[in-house]
Amino acid sequence: MIIQSLLDTDLYKFTMMQAVLHQHPGAIVQYRFKCRTPGIDLARCLDQINAEIDHLCSLRFAADEVDYMRQLRFVKPDFADFLGLFHLDRKYIDLRASATVPGEIELDITGPWLHTILFEVPLLAIINEVWFRTTSTPDFAEGERRLRAKTALLRDTPGFGNCRIADYGTRRRYSRDWHAHMLPLLRDALGTQYVGTSNVYFARRYGMTPHGTMAHEYLQAFQALGPRLRDSQVAALESWAREYRGDLGIALSDVVGLEAFLRDFDMYFCKLFDGVRHDSGDPFAWGDRMLAHFKANRADPSSKILVFSDGLNIEKVMRLYDYFRDRCQVAFGVGTHLTNDLGPTPLNIVIKMVRCNGQPVAKLSDSPGKSMCDDPGYLAYLRQVFGLPAVP
User: Fold this and answer.
1) Global pTM value
2) Which of 22, 34, 38, 135 is 20 to 30 Å from 207 by CA-CA measure?
3) Are residues 131 and 169 in the same domain?
């Protein structure tokens, strides 16, 4: 089966899950799957996907896995104890073939946030791998050749010795076996230029550093959990600060667009957080704006970290590093370009939170096509509340 451990997911799922346990254990949420790649007949794979989900829901955290989590500096004892009791429950998943669009599948996850938050990444990994093993034959030799070319470019280009990358590719990987195979190759080829992976299972297996803080869903949920919609970003960031007291200090800037984020990310947050992560829009313009914002709020830009994670390849990493390296600290999370570059075109699939406590929530992305919400009226209201222009 594809998923062999509940650790086979991104670290930020656990960091958010701990905050949910402590602050919002009763929140009820809904996630929805979307395949943005046209012409993909996932319905033909429905039986295989269902079998993989059944297996996923049979897994538990082993004692040594809980011990590993307990040793992470930001994991609190009660959360580690909770993981020892945790399992994913199939009753929260509704998976079916679309009744209106031939070949498409409809997948909803509805239930307590605390008990559904770990579904997203393994479900996406399952759908990816089932699709590719059904429709293609892996060429690992070609994948290795491409990977070695990428690492050689980064490693051997003069002036880029301090340019460092991490693997962020679990959810869109070609397969679990390829992910397991390419990570040691990446580490051995890059040395100190490779700093770790978002995948907790492989971080433990290979003695790598796990990376991650928060995802969009954390700030989205506060659109329903916060005292009022306009204060939802501030409430989410203050909640994070209460949980981690300055640790895991990378904020996500594009849940309702950069302009709205900068209005909320005041001097307190500029000084408290170590940096910010980019995940949509022009990364060069975004970085310029963020560094100017730090300076305007009396936070030394050279001490701050800009984390780039939006559709990166090695060439784009190098351009960004060259542009920002003398002005601040920079970090890069590279996903599909590393874990799904064996020939077949990667799928563009996502699972996003669409409701919390019965209310719609949404991301207003700085990149067209990345927003996802089932309530157009709420999207218009969200734009109005945050002072964003209406969509024509």
Assistant:
1) 0.97
2) 22
3) no
Q: Is 6 within a domain?
A: no
Give phi and psi for 112, each to the nearest 5.
-60, 135
Q: What is the spatial distance between Cα 216 and Cα 252, in angstroms, rounded to a whole number?
A: 7
Q: What is the mean pLDDT of the chain?
A: 96
Locus of tokens 């869903």:
217
Residue 391 pLDDT > 80, yes or no? Answer: no
The CA-based angle 70-126-119, given to 5 degrees, is: 45
If asked whether residues 190 and 67 sit together in one domain, one would say no
Is pLDDT above 70 for 369?
no
Q: What is the pLDDT of residue 308?
A: 98
DSSP code at position 303:
G
97 in the same domain as 39? yes
What are the Cα distances from residue 142, in Å, to 146, 251, 340? Answer: 6, 37, 12
pLDDT greater than 80 at residue 110: yes
Quote the tokens at residue 71. Answer: 């040793």
Residue from 127, 12, 122, 124 nearest 57 by CA = 122
Q: Which of 281, 226, 301, 289 is nearest to 263 (CA)?
A: 289
Which residues constitute the domain of residue 144? 140-339
